[in-house]
Amino acid sequence: MTDYIEIPHIRTELPGPRSKELLALARRYEPPVFNQQVPIVWASGTGAQVTDVDGNVFIDMTSGVLVTNIGHSHSEHVKAIQDQAGLLLNCYDFTTEWRAKLVEKLIEITPPTFERVILMTTGAEAIETAVKIARRYTGRTEIIAFDDGFHGRTYGSLSVGGKSSLRKGFGPTLPGVHHAHFPFCGRCSMADIPERCPYHTTEELDRIVRTSLSGEVAALIIEPYLGAGGSLFPPPGWLAMVSEWCKKRDIVFILDEVQSSFGRTGTLFAFEQEGFIPDLLCVGKGLGSGIPISAVLGPAGIMDQLDAGSFSTTSGGNPLACRAALNSIDIVLKENLAGRAVQLGKMMADRLKGLASRYAIVDEARGRGLVWGLEVVTDSETHQPAPEIAKGIIYSAFYKGVLIIAPIGSYGNVIRLAPPLVISEHLLLRAMDLIEAAVRELSI
Ligand SMILES: Cc1ncc(COP(=O)(O)O)c(C=O)c1O
Predict the structure, then answer these.
(1) 145 neighbors 221 (Cβ within 8 angstroms)
(2) Are 319 and 84 in contact (CB under 8 A)?
């Protein structure tokens, strides 16, 4: 009989001795360019549990960074990867069985307007690909993007992102990109009169076309909700309105579902809940559930006009990634993980909205399915963003055995909670209890 251990299980001081050694080693050689996460050295993961190199077991509220939707080390996923590693790892642009089956599968699970797929390696690469396709197809150059949007850190993706802190010192970025205001009422001077707000309509887009552009708009790019921007969701129906606006002007609508797809928000793709279909769809992260792979999907009318060689990459569509992605999609469908995100999402919503009503430092809980953000503030009077308190909550949760990513959002005060979609009810509720204990601690 194996001993039952309650999860989380913290058996050393944190960080533990082996973690300390390895953190020091990594810090000696890696520049401080990464987000500052809590001091843990991951050793292994299973489902929604992560074990560090000292044997401490945490509940995972990160899914890596919204990657491992099917859970860490899913046995079928591991088997597929192991089998493929013994067969073939790279063959450049040559087709394999898995590559052919993966592109077929992606077309099968998306609406019929999607007829072609380009496989890439990272989310940022998919974004750059989509922007290039839109420019090439329309023969125009300008791009409308959104304040606080995040699309990656390579030059093209950074340029369409709406975060100046990420661009600082790296300019000039891509010319021809214009950022529109995203319709989120928090901290907006129009919040009291949303019915008269230009951001809730397409007036803001008209304004940009009138004032900042030269009539050469190739594409509009947006996420279904601003993830790294602070878990900001647009008003109902707004994305469909924007899609219509684009259609009327023959502007390519690029939807960045790099983090929101494969069940995360309660449907396979987030756009399914918004009543529209984008022209180009970018996916990544959960596509490979840990093996790097991304894709851009679009109609034949757009994609077939591209020249041979224009999008080839060394690792895009490699056999390992394709087989892993095929397998991961099968698991998402077979285990109905989107449905699970809806069911567990209700529990999460209940608990997190409860936190917002009980604790003055939690201003709001925003989310859908199994991706949630807690807006942390100094108090309920001034609603001032409180990045230090957010960090405090994340550290306190860490010491209690719950793993959370460093805070996000424009003010660094939003706590992002996104467990693997396979998390058990028991572990999810345990994590909610511990997060509440951390919020209580920081409220005093
Ligand atoms: C919405 C979105 N787009 C693009 C990216 C970039 O993906 P990658 O880090 O794989 O380049 C991310 C990464 O967090 C993302 O969240």
Answers:
(1) yes
(2) yes
| Residue 11 within a domain | no
| pLDDT by 10-residue block (mean), the chain, 444 residues | 81 98 97 94 98 98 98 98 98 96 98 98 98 97 97 97 94 95 84 80 91 92 98 96 98 98 98 98 98 98 94 95 98 98 98 98 98 96 96 98 97 98 98 98 93
Strand arrangement of the beta sheet that strand 362-368 belongs to:
362-368, 371-376, 414-417
- Domain-embedded: residue 126: yes
CA atoms within 13 A of residue 197's CA, in its CB half-sphere: 17
**239, containing H or E segment:** helix 238-249
User: Does residue 3 lie in a domain region?
Assistant: no
Ligand 1 centroid distance, CA of 227 (Å): 9
**8 Å CB contact between 324 and 77:** yes
Residues 179 and 296 in one domain: yes
Residue 285 inside a domain? The answer is yes
**Total domains, the chain:** 2
Position 340: which residue type?
R
How many angstroms separate the CA atoms of 100 and 104, rounded?
A: 6
Task: Write out residues with Cβ below 6 Å of ligand 1.
Answer: 65, 122-124, 127, 150-152, 223, 227-228, 256, 258-259, 284
State which of 334, 369, 391 marks the end of a domain.
334
Closest among 107, 151, 121 to 298, alpha carbons compared: 107
* The ligand 1 atom nearest the CA atom of 149: 1
Q: The domain that contains 244 carries what CATH number?
A: 3.40.640.10
Domain that residue 243 falls in:
77-334
